[in-house]
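ligand=iron/sulfur cluster
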Amino acid sequence: MCSVTPWAALAGGVERDGTQAQSGGDMTIGNGSQLSRRAIIQVGLLVLATGVSARAEAQQKIAANLVQYQQKPKGTQECDRCLHFVPPDGCKVVAGKINPKGWCALFAPKPK
Ligand code: SF4
């Protein structure tokens, strides 16, 4: 076991003060927890994958023109009464800026 700062572990074993950190095995970080280099890399990859996944989800929204989106309500149906509406001007399923008084074919009433 050795006490190595996380940046030293990721930078190939060189501490900020220029000394060589011990390599291999587990490391102790500030709070006394032990982490292996493999664990640190796995956490980094997980964070990276989560970011890519979130971006992919954002791109999967439907284009407004494909769901007959309009800037005005359809009868009593309007975006701010829809389950998918995200105030102040978003929608969980339709891309772009959404007018709270707009409407589209995916309208689903909020539960009462
Ligand atoms: S009516 Fe359509 S655009 Fe408006 S919030 Fe609901 S799903 Fe989104």
